[in-house]
Amino acid sequence: MIAPTPGTLRPIPTRRTAWRHTLALLTLLAGGAAHAADPPEPPIFVDGFDGWVAVCSSLEPIQWGFRGNESASDFFIPAWQQRKFGDRCPSGSEMLGFRDAECHEVLGSPANPSSPPEHTHCTANLCCGAPPPIPTCDQPADAGIPPEALDVEPPVDEEETRGSLSDLYPGQDTRTGDFRDTLACDPAIGETDIPPEVDEPPEAEVLQAEEALETWEQSDGSDLAAQQTSAPAPISTSPGHIPDDVCYWSVLPPLLVVPCEQMLDPTQPFDGRDVIYVRGFGTEQIKDALLFGDSEARKTWPEDRAAFEPGGYFYGAAYDYWKDHIREHLWAVDGSPWDVAGWQWWAGDADPNYRPKKNRVLIVAWSTNQRLNYSQHAFLTQVSDAIKYGRNVLSPPGLPTHQYRPFCANGCVIISHSTGGLLVSSALGAVNAGAYGLETRSLLSHLRVHVAFDSAISGSRLASTALAVGSPMMTDPMRDSLCAIVSPMFDTDLVCGMGVHNVLQQSVLVDLMPMVAQSVWGPVLSLSPVPTLTVAGGAPVGNYVWGGTKWLLPGIDDGVVTANSACGNPNPVWPDGVSAPSGVIVRSLRKSFDLGDKLSRATQIMIAQKNLMAGHRPAPLNYLAGMCTPYLSPSGMVLPVVNSMRSTPWDPRRRYPNHYSMIQSIEDHSYNGGGDAANPWPSSVGAPASAPRHYLEPRSGWVNNEESSAVTDAGIFRQFPDGSYLVKPQFANSVEIVKGKSIKFRLFRRTHKVWLWKRTYERLAGWETKQSSHYVYEFVARH
After folding, report:
1. At what angle do helices 313-329 and 283-291 cross, to 10 degrees?
2. For 624-655, how does the pLDDT look when each residue is reduced to its tens digit (9 = 90+)?
3. Are residues 175 and 228 in the same domain?
């Protein structure tokens, strides 16, 4: 079957001749009509249109069908509808540029053979036909290699950064992940058997510990939580009124008063705003209180304020907690080497570099051995005193001495970690509710944003575990199983002894029980008028002994807190609620397994995704626990989501009021706060700026360095009256990466590629070199 040459008259085929053409074409496509040494003849496209005929050629597979006209038939070739034309057919001039199609002259009309010769040209109706959808997918979900394929090449591993989401998906709002609900393409191609380790039960000691903890939660633990019917009364002394800011460009005569906004510096993190640091839970404070009954760790706020001042026990603990973090991002609060501080790789920087910053800081001290209301008061008082008197404010060298700017002028940025997130948000909510008097509400206008790293804002089941093991009602076999987990957390067996409940039940552990954190403090922190940005982690293994903490934490977690808590999601989760962790329904569990990752790490991630415990779930077979955004795994793999559970009890997007998820990553709990001796900040050990920044890598061959956007609410990019943003819009610059294994072959004179498997990833630009905290200092509260 040979295509007519230009100028050849070809009559419109009857239905019989159309079938004959089709059979010949199918024979050709199957390879039965052409000799192996001969190139295949091009198939023929025949379109009946007002008696005129267009003959076009293509090397692509085709579909054949009728348009409802018994005397005319069409072969529709999707390749002719090229991507750049969208939903319309190409024009005649555009058709001339097609590689696979050409239009031919037609002499006369079968209805009037004597009519003069005319040219069909390349009209849309003739050479385009009914346009197929835009071929946005690079391959049908699971295409195979056709038997007619020639020159099949060996499989090749591929990894490619395809570009930014905004470029790849024009017309879509890629600032949040919701645009993925509209995409027709499957982000995962190919599947394999899930490793059996994913569904293996935990070790016997973990099962015993889980049983012991459940027993306590349903008895003594439930009674203890029920006693916390409302938030404890705030400390009676008020931090007092905060005066309006007055800034002096020069304190030398003549005095020059300027608007404080003029003293912002867009070259600095947070535009040069002052920073307040609030630490997390202090296991060493519990340990010291148990080891030494009359130790400094037993001193209390506000009676023993000296212990919370520089030189005191609690201040020293807070200082040690933050000094390496502050050096990495701002300046060396502990002195030399002064120049190895302030790591950055911002837009315009050719390479990563150290550039010490100019932000002043305040390190807040509080006691783990007291309940949360005392810690709130300690935080509010220390911030108020810093604003009014400059008390305990640390200033970097080189600040101009002739200028004066009150602390928190232009609004402070609060950086919290772990329990600090619950402390700060609940304290600000209590102030806004008037719990500390109307005059204290003036403090709120001096605070710009709260960034909560790995926040225990909804508590942690590990707090329940510690309280359970110290309970006088715990029997020895049950206590022993829990002690194997708790004693490494506190680095002492004393927490497993009799009589320790008097210490533990007076501590912030009670407030960190998930039921108490959500039911008692949830309504309070929901009143905070200061926007909170959350940064969450999904570490592949748990903290402390043999990763056992992961089995006690439902869903994805960072080893200490769950993703639900760290993201700021108030959904009640089993055992304190009836539901499984927030998550999604996926098309296939096998396609949700990350074939582009190390097998051992991908296995650990899916174990966490399937650790739903006894919580009720909507789809028992294909439901996975999620993180802040429903579309991405902790490593940034795009999941094949079929139901993102919007507006259900399992919605991963739900947030406490005025709380916004910003980043999710593969990080472990300790990294952004107190740190881990096994993975110190490079700047803290004098390493060059080029040294890799990564999270704890507990197993050989793992590279834990991925970050993804966790933005689910575009309100996070709002602008303040002074022109700075809550989060700069440039943060929404994620890139899409594909990994897979492909095979190339030839068919119909063309080289084709088929994915044996492919996985798609969405990560923040610069993820290879930055960590989650670096994005915060680059994009938050800046112009």
Report:
1. 160
2. 999 999 999 999 999 999 999 999 999 999 99
3. no
